[in-house]
Amino acid sequence: MQRYFINEPFVNQKRIEITGDDYHHIVRVMRMKMGDEILIVTNDGKVATASIEQVTDVSVEASVTSWEEESKELPVQIVIASGLPKGDKLEWIIQKGTELGASEFVPFIAGRSIVKWEEKKAVKKLERWNKIAKEAAEQSHRQILPSVHAPLSFKELIQLGEQCERKIVAYEEVAKYGEQSNFAEALNKTEPGNKVLLVFGPEGGMTEKEANELHAHGFILCGLGPRILRTETAPLYALAAISYHFELMR
Amino acid sequence: MQRYFINEPFVNQKRIEITGDDYHHIVRVMRMKMGDEILIVTNDGKVATASIEQVTDVSVEASVTSWEEESKELPVQIVIASGLPKGDKLEWIIQKGTELGASEFVPFIAGRSIVKWEEKKAVKKLERWNKIAKEAAEQSHRQILPSVHAPLSFKELIQLGEQCERKIVAYEEVAKYGEQSNFAEALNKTEPGNKVLLVFGPEGGMTEKEANELHAHGFILCGLGPRILRTETAPLYALAAISYHFELMR
Protein backbone atom coordinates (compact mmCIF):
# COMPACT_ATOMS: atom_id res chain seq x y z
CA MET A 1 0.00 0.00 0.00
CA GLN A 2 1.32 3.47 -0.89
CA ARG A 3 2.43 5.45 2.15
CA TYR A 4 2.36 9.22 2.58
CA PHE A 5 4.24 11.26 5.16
CA ILE A 6 2.06 14.04 6.56
CA ASN A 7 3.78 16.91 8.29
CA GLU A 8 1.73 16.83 11.49
CA PRO A 9 1.76 14.74 14.68
CA PHE A 10 -0.80 12.09 15.58
CA VAL A 11 -3.24 13.90 17.86
CA ASN A 12 -5.87 11.22 18.06
CA GLN A 13 -7.44 12.53 14.88
CA LYS A 14 -9.50 10.09 12.89
CA ARG A 15 -9.73 12.19 9.75
CA ILE A 16 -6.71 13.46 7.82
CA GLU A 17 -6.69 16.02 5.00
CA ILE A 18 -3.99 15.68 2.37
CA THR A 19 -3.05 18.48 -0.05
CA GLY A 20 -0.13 19.47 -2.30
CA ASP A 21 2.22 16.92 -3.86
CA ASP A 22 0.70 13.98 -2.01
CA TYR A 23 -2.80 15.03 -3.10
CA HIS A 24 -1.49 15.13 -6.67
CA HIS A 25 0.13 11.72 -6.29
CA ILE A 26 -2.97 10.10 -4.79
CA VAL A 27 -5.49 11.55 -7.23
CA ARG A 28 -3.56 12.14 -10.48
CA VAL A 29 -0.77 9.54 -10.35
CA MET A 30 -2.39 6.69 -8.41
CA ARG A 31 -5.89 7.67 -9.59
CA MET A 32 -7.38 6.63 -6.25
CA LYS A 33 -11.06 7.01 -5.45
CA MET A 34 -13.33 6.97 -2.44
CA GLY A 35 -12.92 3.77 -0.47
CA ASP A 36 -9.32 3.18 -1.61
CA GLU A 37 -6.81 2.73 1.20
CA ILE A 38 -3.48 4.47 1.83
CA LEU A 39 -0.91 4.45 4.60
CA ILE A 40 -0.47 7.67 6.56
CA VAL A 41 2.75 8.36 8.45
CA THR A 42 2.54 11.21 10.97
CA ASN A 43 5.64 13.25 11.76
CA ASP A 44 5.85 11.63 15.20
CA GLY A 45 6.33 8.24 13.57
CA LYS A 46 2.86 6.71 13.83
CA VAL A 47 1.56 4.75 10.85
CA ALA A 48 -2.14 4.32 10.08
CA THR A 49 -4.17 2.66 7.38
CA ALA A 50 -6.69 5.22 6.16
CA SER A 51 -9.60 4.97 3.78
CA ILE A 52 -10.28 7.79 1.31
CA GLU A 53 -13.64 9.41 2.10
CA GLN A 54 -13.66 12.52 -0.03
CA VAL A 55 -11.72 13.89 -3.02
CA THR A 56 -12.00 17.58 -3.86
CA ASP A 57 -10.09 19.65 -6.44
CA VAL A 58 -7.39 20.49 -3.88
CA SER A 59 -7.50 17.86 -1.14
CA VAL A 60 -8.17 14.28 -0.17
CA GLU A 61 -9.89 13.46 3.11
CA ALA A 62 -9.15 10.05 4.60
CA SER A 63 -10.23 8.45 7.84
CA VAL A 64 -8.01 6.19 9.91
CA THR A 65 -9.13 2.56 10.08
CA SER A 66 -6.19 1.10 12.04
CA TRP A 67 -2.76 1.99 13.47
CA GLU A 68 0.42 0.00 12.70
CA GLU A 69 1.85 -1.71 15.77
CA GLU A 70 5.46 -2.86 15.23
CA SER A 71 8.37 -0.48 14.86
CA LYS A 72 10.33 -0.47 11.60
CA GLU A 73 12.92 2.02 12.86
CA LEU A 74 16.44 1.35 14.16
CA PRO A 75 16.55 1.46 17.98
CA VAL A 76 19.28 4.12 17.68
CA GLN A 77 19.18 7.44 15.81
CA ILE A 78 21.90 7.52 13.17
CA VAL A 79 23.13 10.86 11.81
CA ILE A 80 25.22 10.42 8.65
CA ALA A 81 27.74 13.25 8.19
CA SER A 82 29.36 13.03 4.75
CA GLY A 83 32.24 15.18 3.59
CA LEU A 84 30.62 16.86 0.56
CA PRO A 85 31.41 14.44 -2.31
CA LYS A 86 31.49 14.93 -6.08
CA GLY A 87 28.60 14.53 -8.51
CA ASP A 88 25.42 12.78 -7.40
CA LYS A 89 27.10 10.61 -4.75
CA LEU A 90 25.34 12.38 -1.90
CA GLU A 91 21.93 11.82 -3.53
CA TRP A 92 22.84 8.19 -3.66
CA ILE A 93 23.95 8.12 -0.01
CA ILE A 94 20.63 9.75 0.94
CA GLN A 95 18.54 7.26 -1.03
CA LYS A 96 20.32 4.12 0.16
CA GLY A 97 20.97 5.49 3.66
CA THR A 98 17.23 6.15 4.06
CA GLU A 99 16.44 2.58 3.03
CA LEU A 100 18.98 1.39 5.60
CA GLY A 101 17.49 3.39 8.48
CA ALA A 102 19.44 6.66 8.86
CA SER A 103 17.52 9.42 10.63
CA GLU A 104 19.47 12.49 9.48
CA PHE A 105 21.93 13.44 6.74
CA VAL A 106 24.39 16.26 7.36
CA PRO A 107 26.89 17.05 4.61
CA PHE A 108 29.92 19.06 5.68
CA ILE A 109 32.68 20.95 3.89
CA ALA A 110 35.73 18.73 4.36
CA GLY A 111 39.36 19.60 3.67
CA ARG A 112 39.37 17.30 0.65
CA SER A 113 35.91 18.25 -0.64
CA ILE A 114 36.49 19.23 -4.26
CA VAL A 115 33.02 20.58 -5.04
CA LYS A 116 32.22 24.10 -3.92
CA TRP A 117 28.90 24.66 -2.17
CA GLU A 118 27.02 27.36 -4.07
CA GLU A 119 24.65 29.27 -1.79
CA LYS A 120 22.51 30.38 -4.70
CA LYS A 121 21.78 26.76 -5.55
CA ALA A 122 21.30 25.77 -1.91
CA VAL A 123 17.50 25.94 -1.76
CA LYS A 124 17.02 23.85 -4.90
CA LYS A 125 19.63 21.29 -3.78
CA LEU A 126 18.07 20.89 -0.33
CA GLU A 127 14.62 20.50 -1.84
CA ARG A 128 15.92 17.80 -4.15
CA TRP A 129 17.83 15.98 -1.36
CA ASN A 130 14.77 15.96 0.91
CA LYS A 131 12.55 14.77 -1.95
CA ILE A 132 14.92 11.83 -2.50
CA ALA A 133 14.76 11.00 1.23
CA LYS A 134 10.94 11.20 1.21
CA GLU A 135 10.59 8.87 -1.78
CA ALA A 136 13.08 6.36 -0.36
CA ALA A 137 11.35 6.50 3.05
CA GLU A 138 7.98 5.75 1.47
CA GLN A 139 9.39 2.95 -0.63
CA SER A 140 11.27 1.30 2.26
CA HIS A 141 8.33 1.61 4.70
CA ARG A 142 10.06 4.01 7.10
CA GLN A 143 8.04 5.38 10.01
CA ILE A 144 10.23 8.46 10.36
CA LEU A 145 11.10 10.77 7.48
CA PRO A 146 14.87 11.44 7.55
CA SER A 147 15.87 15.08 7.19
CA VAL A 148 18.72 16.41 5.05
CA HIS A 149 20.52 19.53 6.23
CA ALA A 150 22.51 22.19 4.40
CA PRO A 151 26.29 21.57 4.57
CA LEU A 152 27.99 22.42 7.88
CA SER A 153 31.46 23.81 8.36
CA PHE A 154 33.93 21.50 10.11
CA LYS A 155 33.52 23.61 13.26
CA GLU A 156 29.73 23.16 13.14
CA LEU A 157 30.21 19.42 12.67
CA ILE A 158 32.16 19.26 15.94
CA GLN A 159 29.42 21.30 17.66
CA LEU A 160 26.79 18.88 16.31
CA GLY A 161 28.72 16.10 18.05
CA GLU A 162 27.96 17.69 21.41
CA GLN A 163 24.30 16.71 20.97
CA CYS A 164 25.15 13.03 20.33
CA GLU A 165 25.83 10.23 22.83
CA ARG A 166 28.24 8.49 20.45
CA LYS A 167 30.56 10.01 17.82
CA ILE A 168 32.30 7.80 15.28
CA VAL A 169 34.62 8.59 12.36
CA ALA A 170 35.35 6.11 9.56
CA TYR A 171 39.07 6.75 9.03
CA GLU A 172 40.90 4.81 6.34
CA GLU A 173 44.32 5.49 7.84
CA VAL A 174 43.59 3.55 11.05
CA ALA A 175 42.06 0.77 8.92
CA LYS A 176 45.36 0.50 7.02
CA TYR A 177 47.09 -0.28 10.31
CA GLY A 178 44.61 -3.05 11.02
CA GLU A 179 42.25 -1.20 13.39
CA GLN A 180 39.16 -3.41 13.34
CA SER A 181 37.62 -3.46 16.80
CA ASN A 182 36.70 0.17 17.64
CA PHE A 183 33.46 0.19 15.62
CA ALA A 184 32.01 -2.94 17.24
CA GLU A 185 33.18 -1.71 20.68
CA ALA A 186 31.43 1.62 20.10
CA LEU A 187 28.20 -0.17 19.12
CA ASN A 188 28.43 -2.39 22.21
CA LYS A 189 28.55 0.75 24.36
CA THR A 190 25.59 2.32 22.52
CA GLU A 191 22.17 2.15 24.20
CA PRO A 192 18.76 2.05 22.49
CA GLY A 193 17.58 5.63 22.02
CA ASN A 194 21.11 7.01 21.73
CA LYS A 195 21.93 9.50 18.99
CA VAL A 196 24.99 8.36 17.02
CA LEU A 197 26.95 10.69 14.74
CA LEU A 198 28.82 8.84 11.98
CA VAL A 199 31.38 10.90 10.05
CA PHE A 200 32.72 9.94 6.61
CA GLY A 201 35.29 11.76 4.51
CA PRO A 202 34.81 12.79 0.87
CA GLU A 203 36.81 11.20 -1.95
CA GLY A 204 40.37 10.90 -0.62
CA GLY A 205 39.09 10.60 2.95
CA MET A 206 39.52 12.84 6.00
CA THR A 207 42.80 14.72 6.39
CA GLU A 208 45.05 13.72 9.30
CA LYS A 209 44.42 17.17 10.81
CA GLU A 210 40.64 16.65 10.67
CA ALA A 211 40.90 13.17 12.16
CA ASN A 212 43.11 14.42 15.01
CA GLU A 213 40.77 17.31 15.76
CA LEU A 214 37.71 15.05 15.80
CA HIS A 215 39.56 12.57 18.02
CA ALA A 216 40.45 15.40 20.40
CA HIS A 217 36.71 16.16 20.64
CA GLY A 218 35.79 12.60 21.64
CA PHE A 219 35.11 11.11 18.23
CA ILE A 220 36.19 7.44 17.95
CA LEU A 221 38.36 6.69 14.88
CA CYS A 222 37.30 3.38 13.32
CA GLY A 223 38.27 1.12 10.48
CA LEU A 224 35.41 -0.56 8.60
CA GLY A 225 37.27 -3.70 7.56
CA PRO A 226 40.40 -4.36 5.51
CA ARG A 227 39.03 -3.35 2.11
CA ILE A 228 39.02 0.25 0.93
CA LEU A 229 35.40 1.46 0.63
CA ARG A 230 34.38 4.37 -1.57
CA THR A 231 33.02 7.49 0.07
CA GLU A 232 29.46 6.52 -0.95
CA THR A 233 29.81 2.89 0.18
CA ALA A 234 31.20 3.39 3.70
CA PRO A 235 27.99 4.93 5.18
CA LEU A 236 25.93 2.02 3.83
CA TYR A 237 28.38 -0.47 5.34
CA ALA A 238 28.05 1.25 8.72
CA LEU A 239 24.23 1.41 8.59
CA ALA A 240 23.93 -2.26 7.59
CA ALA A 241 26.34 -3.28 10.38
CA ILE A 242 24.30 -1.23 12.87
CA SER A 243 21.06 -2.88 11.74
CA TYR A 244 22.70 -6.30 11.99
CA HIS A 245 24.03 -5.48 15.47
CA PHE A 246 20.80 -4.07 16.92
CA GLU A 247 18.06 -5.80 14.88
CA LEU A 248 19.28 -9.22 13.70
CA MET A 249 21.80 -10.42 16.31
CA ARG A 250 20.06 -12.00 19.26
CA MET B 1 49.82 2.49 -5.34
CA GLN B 2 48.00 1.23 -8.45
CA ARG B 3 47.34 -2.51 -8.38
CA TYR B 4 47.11 -4.86 -11.35
CA PHE B 5 45.60 -8.34 -11.41
CA ILE B 6 47.72 -10.70 -13.49
CA ASN B 7 46.11 -13.88 -14.72
CA GLU B 8 48.77 -16.29 -13.43
CA PRO B 9 49.63 -17.85 -10.09
CA PHE B 10 52.60 -16.88 -7.93
CA VAL B 11 55.25 -19.44 -8.84
CA ASN B 12 58.15 -17.88 -6.99
CA GLN B 13 58.85 -15.67 -9.98
CA LYS B 14 60.74 -12.47 -9.28
CA ARG B 15 60.09 -10.89 -12.67
CA ILE B 16 56.62 -10.33 -14.12
CA GLU B 17 55.74 -9.33 -17.69
CA ILE B 18 52.60 -7.27 -18.18
CA THR B 19 50.89 -6.84 -21.56
CA GLY B 20 47.47 -5.85 -22.95
CA ASP B 21 45.13 -3.49 -21.11
CA ASP B 22 47.29 -3.30 -18.00
CA TYR B 23 50.36 -2.49 -20.10
CA HIS B 24 48.34 0.28 -21.73
CA HIS B 25 47.19 1.57 -18.35
CA ILE B 26 50.69 1.54 -16.83
CA VAL B 27 52.47 3.15 -19.78
CA ARG B 28 49.85 5.33 -21.51
CA VAL B 29 47.43 6.24 -18.70
CA MET B 30 49.69 6.33 -15.64
CA ARG B 31 52.75 7.23 -17.76
CA MET B 32 55.00 5.17 -15.51
CA LYS B 33 58.71 4.78 -16.15
CA MET B 34 61.57 2.54 -15.07
CA GLY B 35 61.88 2.52 -11.28
CA ASP B 36 58.21 3.34 -10.65
CA GLU B 37 56.42 0.88 -8.37
CA ILE B 38 53.13 -0.97 -8.88
CA LEU B 39 51.21 -3.63 -6.98
CA ILE B 40 50.85 -7.02 -8.63
CA VAL B 41 48.04 -9.38 -7.63
CA THR B 42 48.48 -12.97 -8.81
CA ASN B 43 45.41 -15.10 -9.50
CA ASP B 44 46.10 -17.16 -6.38
CA GLY B 45 45.64 -14.05 -4.25
CA LYS B 46 49.25 -13.05 -3.52
CA VAL B 47 50.08 -9.35 -3.63
CA ALA B 48 53.56 -8.01 -4.38
CA THR B 49 55.13 -4.60 -4.71
CA ALA B 50 57.07 -4.60 -7.99
CA SER B 51 59.45 -2.10 -9.53
CA ILE B 52 59.29 -1.43 -13.28
CA GLU B 53 62.57 -2.51 -14.90
CA GLN B 54 61.82 -2.35 -18.60
CA VAL B 55 59.20 -0.80 -20.87
CA THR B 56 58.92 -2.03 -24.48
CA ASP B 57 56.30 -1.19 -27.13
CA VAL B 58 54.15 -4.11 -26.02
CA SER B 59 55.06 -5.03 -22.47
CA VAL B 60 56.26 -3.88 -19.08
CA GLU B 61 58.71 -5.97 -17.08
CA ALA B 62 58.65 -5.52 -13.33
CA SER B 63 60.56 -7.27 -10.56
CA VAL B 64 59.06 -8.11 -7.18
CA THR B 65 60.54 -6.18 -4.27
CA SER B 66 58.23 -7.43 -1.47
CA TRP B 67 55.10 -9.54 -0.82
CA GLU B 68 52.07 -8.25 1.08
CA GLU B 69 51.50 -10.09 4.34
CA GLU B 70 48.02 -9.47 5.76
CA SER B 71 44.83 -10.77 4.18
CA LYS B 72 42.27 -8.27 2.92
CA GLU B 73 39.74 -10.97 2.00
CA LEU B 74 36.66 -12.09 3.93
CA PRO B 75 37.30 -15.37 5.80
CA VAL B 76 34.27 -16.84 3.99
CA GLN B 77 33.61 -17.04 0.23
CA ILE B 78 30.41 -15.19 -0.62
CA VAL B 79 28.57 -15.96 -3.85
CA ILE B 80 25.94 -13.32 -4.67
CA ALA B 81 23.08 -14.74 -6.75
CA SER B 82 20.83 -11.93 -7.98
CA GLY B 83 17.54 -12.44 -9.78
CA LEU B 84 18.31 -10.61 -13.05
CA PRO B 85 17.22 -7.00 -12.31
CA LYS B 86 16.34 -4.11 -14.61
CA GLY B 87 18.69 -1.51 -16.08
CA ASP B 88 22.20 -1.16 -14.72
CA LYS B 89 21.38 -2.42 -11.21
CA LEU B 90 23.45 -5.56 -11.62
CA GLU B 91 26.50 -3.51 -12.66
CA TRP B 92 26.00 -1.56 -9.49
CA ILE B 93 25.67 -4.71 -7.36
CA ILE B 94 28.91 -6.00 -8.94
CA GLN B 95 30.84 -2.77 -8.28
CA LYS B 96 29.70 -2.29 -4.68
CA GLY B 97 29.62 -6.03 -3.92
CA THR B 98 33.26 -6.30 -5.05
CA GLU B 99 34.23 -3.43 -2.73
CA LEU B 100 32.42 -5.25 0.08
CA GLY B 101 34.23 -8.54 -0.44
CA ALA B 102 32.03 -10.83 -2.58
CA SER B 103 33.96 -13.58 -4.40
CA GLU B 104 31.46 -14.48 -7.15
CA PHE B 105 28.41 -12.97 -8.84
CA VAL B 106 25.83 -15.27 -10.37
CA PRO B 107 22.74 -13.68 -11.92
CA PHE B 108 19.78 -16.00 -12.44
CA ILE B 109 16.53 -15.82 -14.37
CA ALA B 110 13.91 -15.37 -11.65
CA GLY B 111 10.15 -15.68 -11.97
CA ARG B 112 9.77 -11.93 -11.58
CA SER B 113 12.77 -10.97 -13.74
CA ILE B 114 11.35 -8.51 -16.27
CA VAL B 115 14.41 -8.19 -18.51
CA LYS B 116 15.02 -10.91 -21.04
CA TRP B 117 18.56 -12.30 -21.31
CA GLU B 118 19.69 -11.95 -24.93
CA GLU B 119 22.24 -14.62 -25.84
CA LYS B 120 23.60 -12.52 -28.71
CA LYS B 121 24.54 -9.77 -26.23
CA ALA B 122 25.86 -12.25 -23.67
CA VAL B 123 29.57 -12.02 -24.51
CA LYS B 124 29.62 -8.22 -24.44
CA LYS B 125 27.61 -8.09 -21.19
CA LEU B 126 29.88 -10.59 -19.45
CA GLU B 127 32.98 -8.72 -20.61
CA ARG B 128 31.55 -5.49 -19.22
CA TRP B 129 30.47 -7.07 -15.90
CA ASN B 130 33.90 -8.61 -15.37
CA LYS B 131 35.61 -5.32 -16.27
CA ILE B 132 33.53 -3.56 -13.59
CA ALA B 133 34.55 -6.23 -11.05
CA LYS B 134 38.23 -5.87 -12.01
CA GLU B 135 38.23 -2.09 -11.64
CA ALA B 136 36.37 -2.23 -8.30
CA ALA B 137 38.75 -4.96 -7.05
CA GLU B 138 41.79 -2.83 -7.91
CA GLN B 139 40.29 0.28 -6.32
CA SER B 140 39.23 -1.51 -3.10
CA HIS B 141 42.56 -3.38 -2.73
CA ARG B 142 41.12 -6.86 -3.16
CA GLN B 143 43.52 -9.80 -3.26
CA ILE B 144 41.11 -11.97 -5.23
CA LEU B 145 39.42 -10.91 -8.45
CA PRO B 146 35.70 -11.77 -8.19
CA SER B 147 34.22 -13.53 -11.21
CA VAL B 148 30.86 -12.77 -12.83
CA HIS B 149 28.99 -15.63 -14.49
CA ALA B 150 26.38 -15.75 -17.24
CA PRO B 151 22.83 -16.00 -15.85
CA LEU B 152 21.74 -19.41 -14.55
CA SER B 153 18.31 -20.95 -14.73
CA PHE B 154 16.52 -21.45 -11.42
CA LYS B 155 17.32 -25.17 -11.67
CA GLU B 156 21.03 -24.41 -12.13
CA LEU B 157 20.89 -22.08 -9.13
CA ILE B 158 19.68 -24.95 -6.95
CA GLN B 159 22.47 -27.16 -8.34
CA LEU B 160 25.02 -24.44 -7.53
CA GLY B 161 23.80 -24.64 -3.92
CA GLU B 162 25.06 -28.22 -3.73
CA GLN B 163 28.66 -26.91 -3.87
CA CYS B 164 28.11 -24.50 -0.94
CA GLU B 165 28.28 -25.17 2.82
CA ARG B 166 25.65 -22.54 3.54
CA LYS B 167 22.68 -21.41 1.43
CA ILE B 168 20.71 -18.28 2.35
CA VAL B 169 17.76 -16.53 0.68
CA ALA B 170 16.76 -12.95 1.49
CA TYR B 171 12.96 -13.26 1.46
CA GLU B 172 10.85 -10.19 2.10
CA GLU B 173 7.75 -12.20 2.98
CA VAL B 174 9.33 -13.77 6.09
CA ALA B 175 10.70 -10.32 7.03
CA LYS B 176 7.14 -8.96 6.96
CA TYR B 177 6.22 -11.51 9.63
CA GLY B 178 9.09 -10.32 11.80
CA GLU B 179 11.66 -13.03 10.97
CA GLN B 180 14.90 -11.45 12.17
CA SER B 181 17.12 -14.15 13.65
CA ASN B 182 17.77 -16.68 10.84
CA PHE B 183 20.51 -14.63 9.14
CA ALA B 184 22.61 -14.16 12.29
CA GLU B 185 22.03 -17.82 13.23
CA ALA B 186 23.24 -18.92 9.80
CA LEU B 187 26.38 -16.77 10.14
CA ASN B 188 27.04 -18.19 13.61
CA LYS B 189 27.01 -21.69 12.09
CA THR B 190 29.34 -20.66 9.24
CA GLU B 191 33.03 -21.57 9.53
CA PRO B 192 35.99 -19.70 8.04
CA GLY B 193 36.65 -21.09 4.57
CA ASN B 194 33.00 -21.99 3.98
CA LYS B 195 31.36 -21.11 0.68
CA VAL B 196 28.11 -19.21 1.26
CA LEU B 197 25.47 -18.77 -1.44
CA LEU B 198 23.29 -15.68 -0.92
CA VAL B 199 20.18 -15.45 -3.09
CA PHE B 200 18.28 -12.22 -3.75
CA GLY B 201 15.13 -11.72 -5.80
CA PRO B 202 14.77 -9.18 -8.63
CA GLU B 203 12.41 -6.19 -8.30
CA GLY B 204 9.28 -7.55 -6.65
CA GLY B 205 11.27 -10.24 -4.86
CA MET B 206 11.21 -14.03 -5.09
CA THR B 207 7.89 -15.75 -5.80
CA GLU B 208 6.42 -17.90 -3.03
CA LYS B 209 6.95 -20.94 -5.27
CA GLU B 210 10.65 -20.12 -5.70
CA ALA B 211 11.10 -19.53 -1.96
CA ASN B 212 9.40 -22.83 -1.11
CA GLU B 213 11.49 -24.74 -3.65
CA LEU B 214 14.73 -23.22 -2.35
CA HIS B 215 13.67 -23.96 1.23
CA ALA B 216 12.97 -27.57 0.24
CA HIS B 217 16.58 -27.75 -1.03
CA GLY B 218 18.08 -26.59 2.27
CA PHE B 219 18.20 -22.84 1.65
CA ILE B 220 17.52 -20.77 4.79
CA LEU B 221 14.86 -18.06 4.32
CA CYS B 222 15.94 -14.86 6.09
CA GLY B 223 14.68 -11.38 6.74
CA LEU B 224 17.27 -8.58 6.61
CA GLY B 225 15.60 -6.26 9.10
CA PRO B 226 12.22 -4.52 9.25
CA ARG B 227 12.75 -2.07 6.40
CA ILE B 228 12.11 -3.01 2.78
CA LEU B 229 15.42 -2.99 0.86
CA ARG B 230 15.64 -2.59 -2.89
CA THR B 231 16.93 -5.48 -4.96
CA GLU B 232 20.30 -3.70 -5.38
CA THR B 233 20.60 -2.73 -1.70
CA ALA B 234 19.93 -6.11 -0.05
CA PRO B 235 23.17 -7.81 -1.26
CA LEU B 236 25.24 -4.89 0.10
CA TYR B 237 23.43 -5.10 3.43
CA ALA B 238 24.25 -8.82 3.65
CA LEU B 239 27.92 -8.35 2.66
CA ALA B 240 28.42 -5.51 5.18
CA ALA B 241 26.77 -7.58 7.93
CA ILE B 242 29.02 -10.53 7.05
CA SER B 243 32.13 -8.32 7.20
CA TYR B 244 30.97 -6.90 10.52
CA HIS B 245 30.29 -10.41 11.88
CA PHE B 246 33.58 -12.01 10.76
CA GLU B 247 36.01 -9.08 10.62
CA LEU B 248 34.99 -6.39 13.14
CA MET B 249 33.22 -8.21 15.98
CA ARG B 250 35.72 -9.63 18.43
Automatic annotation (TrEMBL), chains A, B:
Its main location: cytoplasm. InterPro entries: Alpha/beta_knot_MTases, PUA-like_sf, RsmE, RsmE_MTase_dom, RsmE_PUA-like, tRNA_m1G_MTases_N. One of its GO terms (cellular component) is cytoplasm. The keyword Cell inner membrane does not apply. It catalyses: uridine(1498) in 16S rRNA + S-adenosyl-L-methionine = N(3)-methyluridine(1498) in 16S rRNA + S-adenosyl-L-homocysteine + H(+). Keywords: Cytoplasm, Methyltransferase, rRNA processing, S-adenosyl-L-methionine, Transferase. Specifically methylates the N3 position of the uracil ring of uridine 1498 (m3U1498) in 16S rRNA. Acts on the fully assembled 30S ribosomal subunit. NCBIfam families: PRK11713.1-4 (NF008691), PRK11713.1-5 (NF008692), RsmE family RNA methyltransferase (TIGR00046). Belongs to the RNA methyltransferase RsmE family. This is Ribosomal RNA small subunit methyltransferase E. It comes from Lederbergia lenta.
